[in-house]
Amino acid sequence: MLDSSPAPQLDRRNFLKASASFGGGLVVALTLPVALRPTWAQAEASPSFAPNAFIRIDRQGAVTLVMPMVEMGQGIYTSLAMLLAEELEVGLDQVKLEHAPPNDALYANAILHRQLTGMSSSIRAFWTPLRQAGAVARTLLIAAAAKQWGVDPAVCLAKHGVVSAGSRQLSYGQLVDAAAALPVPTPDSLALKDPKNFTLIGTPAKRLDTPDKVNGRAEFGIDTKQPGMKVAAIAISPVFGGKPKSLDEAAARAVKGVRQVVRIDEAVAVVADHMWAAKKGLEAAAIQWDDGPNAKVSSADIVRQLEEASKQPGVVARNEGDTEKALASAAQRLEAVYQLPFLAHAAMEPMNCTVHLRKDGCDIWVGTQAPTLTQAVVAQLTGLPKDAVKIHNHLLGGGFGRRLDVDGSVLAVKIAQQVDGPVKVVWSREEDIQHDMYRPYYYDRLSAGLDAEGMPVAWTHRTTGSSVMARYDPPLFKNGLDPDAVEGAAQPPYAFPNIHVDYVRVEPPAIPTAFWRGVGPTHNIFVVESFIDELAHAARQDPVAYRKTLLGHNPRALAVLTLAAEKAGWGQPLPAGHGRGVSVQQAFGSYVSQVAEVEVATDGSVKVHRIVCAVDCGMVVNPDTIEAQVQGGTFFGLTAALYGAITLKNGRVEQGNFDTYRPLRIDEAPVVETHLVKSSEAPGGLGEAPTAVVAPAVANAIFAATAKRIRTLPIDTNLLKLPS
Amino acid sequence: MPFTIKVNGTPHSVDVDGDTPLLWVLRDLLGMTGTKFGCGAALCGACTVHVDGAATRSCITTIDSIGNSAITTIEAVGRTPQGKALQQAWLDLEVVQCGYCQSGQIMSAAALLKDTPKPSDADIDAAMSGNVCRCGTYQRIRAAIHRAAT
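The joint structure predicted for all components is written out below.
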């Protein structure tokens, strides 16, 4: 069946048409891990069928799926491939994956409106479009076979890369030329599979990105190797807004292997043959800094500023009923202040970016959650047209929101502007932690009124802190309200007859803020779920029973709470010093409840023994990934609850490496159990939900064990010590 | 000054200062990027290799301390029975998330299994608590080590 005559190049035509909107920057040579191939350039040379930007099938039947979102551990490459393969009727053993080039027109996430991977939105955003893309390709392949056989397409069946009708069969590879010649149907005109007929979606499929991650072959941004490449170590001003004042360039250059010292506004880089020479050169340079206006800023100043600002009313996120009146007539009133610290991301792969800047173009090798933003910022910085800026995206050695920001690429390009040839800029762990963009510090004031039976008649919640959204995506920051800062606060799962939620924006000096795994809910769920626990206690009611009473209108939240409590053995006796705590969350389109069992020793130390998590995230794409995300997300949130705090003194971040910014380790990791609620609802996000829900479960368990209420994170074990 | 080190059975010569950590020799001079940089201070284990079979943090192991010792990295640990069994268990149980720390995790686990073929949970805690995973794959790491040990 192979035809040696030139095949209709439908893929090229369509792709060129679609990419014209960004200047026709078509051929993007990607650097790909072994499992991820081939490059666009190679693909161009091979005739293939590509009815949309996500699928390409060549004459040998090789199926290439283009991944619009980035893989940073969350398993999205496998889950998105499952959506495509389900409707395309191919097995995951038949596909190869490719990183998408930067192109908002082709690959934007419909929820975030740009090609961004974040906010646990990937499955929600691509659930329908990728199944439609698969269905379009399958429909064309079936139509091509039906035409060849002169039969009704309805009698043809596509399965595992083969179209059949009775005893006749043609492989997808044999059909690509004919399929490419047919008009492409509009996605909306095609019926998608009934979920009851899914053969891939809902199964624990093996991940496609992992085989090369157990043998050292997987390539992260930091692993890039380019001909003639030099390595740069960087020292950024230890105080935000400061500058290098003086340095000993000769001493740096005297280090064996050092090639060049580069000074930019806010940093110094030493360029060398390898990282060790660059680091030694940087040390030898003995840089003196002009700390600038933030030289004296400390955490205490920032907290005082937030505390003061939180006394004034903020922008109203939600107001129903009359909380003032209800509070005035309440049988019991409660008030509390909750505080959450600045946090660094501390992804295992330190920040890095490799740049080759030339007069006519720029290549960037990096792992980024924001490829189009990176391209746009580099184009602006260099004055190059966007299509001359090639982004070679990679697997990410952790993202957690850090790689939504492009400051690392900006710094690398500024350095590359003074370097002839490719240069890989690698941050030390200390630079990575001390020059992160941090989860904001939040200062929250709450009040509630209870009636004579202890049920809430009023709930107020004012959150005060930096707005990440106002900086990152200004159109979403409307009328002074940051929807992220109040997510999980404005719409708690509970029924309150009177509720008032407002937001006070305060931008702290000396410390840039950014999204962090779990975003708004990681802050607000801790506050809301801890305070509702305070209400239950004030009402002298069981925390689970109290919540259930307030969830009568919310069956999905009630169901996860009921399941988590049942699986955890809620109410069963525990040894002295142990306690159970519960939390409920409705966020990212998913419902999650956790029960934590903790032990508090007489010295105040906290050991988390077990976490039971019930999840309703709608229809499940890959249950094995859900379990992995529940475990991993929980540990990420638990790390922060137990240890996470970035503090400033004299404008400098006081933490520097994993000794002072402590991660959870295997000997501290509790057993995490995952229980799924079967659901036919649309899929929700899950990468961040478990991160947000764990801290209140643990804090409430500590209260159950010690009668001490944790209102500030991280948990201060000094407050939990028993008098000796 | 010139040094010759034996990595995965092959001798390599490099000309660097004697205080250069093995990590950067492997990554930047020999192009073996499976061994990862995580902290530079032996706090995270991402750079773990075997030096004469012992799990060693290559980020603080200077080239002049190696002498004739045999170095094994993630690229070749699959040639050992423990490495092979662990890599398979890692895939069977889908341990990996972002994957950046997993080279070091597998190298630490392989050294553990070589010395302790049937490790207890406490053995695993002792051998693996120097390896940080920010994705939080610890529960599956523990299960995969037990699986590889059977």
